[in-house]
TrEMBL record, chains A, B:
Function: Inositol phosphate kinase with a broad substrate specificity.
Name under which the protein is recorded: Inositol polyphosphate multikinase
GO annotation terms (biological process): inositol phosphate biosynthetic process
One Pfam entry name: IPK
UniProt-annotated stretches for the region Disordered: 1-21
GO cellular component, one term: nucleus
Species this chain originates from: Oryza meyeriana var. granulata
InterPro entries attached to this UniProt entry: IPK, IPK_sf
Keyword annotations of the record: ATP-binding, Kinase, Nucleotide-binding, Transferase
């Protein structure tokens, strides 16, 4: 591969196309930046228009922008082996959301029972609707699009179900994935101990607290409707497992804005409903883990 | 018409079929009871099964049941002129939700962007989806299915848009209806003054406070999914307009349970999303009215 300077496909990407000599895909520079190739058709332009509007929008508080969205640095033309003669191709430049996590545990959760904007053309609606009904989107208000769980320790085992496994997942499967995401056994073993639930999901800076803050924003904001966007969860397996190590750099970020719609004064009830459902799933795991902890080892 | 005793079609019904010699429709007895004929097909059985399960469910708090649902009194066979020979027909017996309101203002708001349970057969999905996209359901997460606004005073004007007008309503139209619902001018005039917004929507026992309590329940409850159910709003025009008259018997009740699904441990993200959207609409009207009040007459 011949990417310029230190550019390379992100090692721990869990969803979307992977960059190769045949395909465009995201790149990272190892210094904290993420380069997302502009998607084909009008999706890429649409996503770029969103980042441009959002990053300068006076009605979006800096707190929400910094806490829940990757920072946007404009676009950059990058030569890519996936194009004839390595022709330069436009990329959206963003924060690398997994930077600083040597042993990242990642989950990409696509939010919303409905993944198509209301004014979409019929064939697109039909296609998305079928997928929303086949996966857990319609039933749960979200689906897990990608996940990577690393066990703590040098060369710790990694669990990373493939796309077909995730697509076929039912509600019970989703619950298991969200438990496994915070279980110390990581990829190995069947007993999901949720040993990291308090550190990663619970506590002040934990996933649950961050999701609730995000929810409060979605109860009020009427600027954008985030169809087919994902919440990316990340933390570091080693840091989270270290005694007194805190949450291990827990992060909760929105990504994938190719289908964002204007809000026109109405809240994003579709995203909000799915977000509340995810909060309930994760809240249940935290409550269960805290009960187990207070009753001591059995 | 020859209904037994004092049974008659409710005077202020805003949605659904109206009872006549040709059609089955709900009846009231004037003493506080409402008789809903069992719907055809499996809908009626389904609604009855819901009322039976819900009214005895140990996990539903009495507070939620009493505050937000009509009380269920079983079924009763009633002779009806809509059937050959006045044949008796089974009716679900419920509280008459508009009892005690001499001059009722009523709104029937169907909640949820999606009105079909996820496991519905394809033709039903197609039919509902088309209606959800044609009306404001998909866009707002709810649609107004019926409304009646009475002006205060003896023989006050009544505004009651017909079904086709409601079906064609866009987001701006819904906002106008929700303003008109609390405007003193009622049916007449064009200036929607929202004079009753503070009394009906605002305050301790007002619509907004009740909707927020309902929302807290929906954030936790995983027993039922209320597809195609409505929130019925009611208050009395005269009482609300009387000086120091309080909210005029404001009520917020769930109705229409022919498509309720089991929750299976998942929250009703579809209803919750729509409910949050309705809360935002109504909250905006309350905020605007309170700003106007504090800045005084202009």
């Amino acid at each position: 591969m011949s990417f310029s300077s230190d550019l390379r496909p992100p090692e721990h990407q869990v969803a979307g196309h992977r960059a190769s000599t045949e395909k465009l895909g995201p790149l990272v520079d190892g210094a904290g930046l993420f380069y997302k190739p502009l998607q084909a058709g009008d999706r890429g332009e649409h996503e770029l228009a969103f980042y441009t509007a959002f990053s300068a929008h006076p009605a979006v508080s800096p707190r929400v922008r910094d806490a829940f969205f990757p920072r946007f640095y404009g676009t950059r033309l990058l030569p890519t082996p996936a194009r004839p003669g390595g022709d330069p191709y436009p990329h959206i430049v963003l924060d690398d959301l997994l930077a600083g996590l040597p042993s990242p545990c990642v989950a990409d959760v696509k939010i919303g029972a409905c993944t198509w904007p209301p004014r979409s053309p019929d064939p697109y609606v039909t296609k998305c609707l079928a997928k929303d009904r086949e996966t857990t989107s319609a039933l749960l208000g979200f689906r897990v699009s990608g996940v990577r769980v690393a066990a703590a320790g040098q060369g710790g085992e990694v669990w990373r179900p493939d796309r077909s496994e995730l697509k076929a997942m039912d509600a019970a499967g989703v619950r298991r994935v969200l438990r496994r995401y915070v279980s110390s056994c990581g990829g190995g073993g069947d007993g999901l101990d949720c040993a990291l639930a308090a550190a990663v999901y619970g506590g002040e800076g934990g996933v649950l607290a961050q999701l609730r803050e995000l929810k409060a924003w979605f109860e009020e904001q009427t600027l954008f409707h985030f169809y087919s966007a994902s919440i990316l969860l990340g933390y570091d397996a080693n840091a989270a497992s270290a005694p007194g190590g805190g949450g291990g750099g827990v992060r909760v970020k929105l990504v994938d804005f190719a289908h964002v719609d204007e809000g026109e004064g109405v809240i994003d009830h579709n995203f909000l409903g799915g977000l509340c459902s995810l909060i309930k799933f994760i809240g249940d795991i935290v409550a269960e883990a805290s009960e187990k902890a207070s009753s001591g080892p059995s």
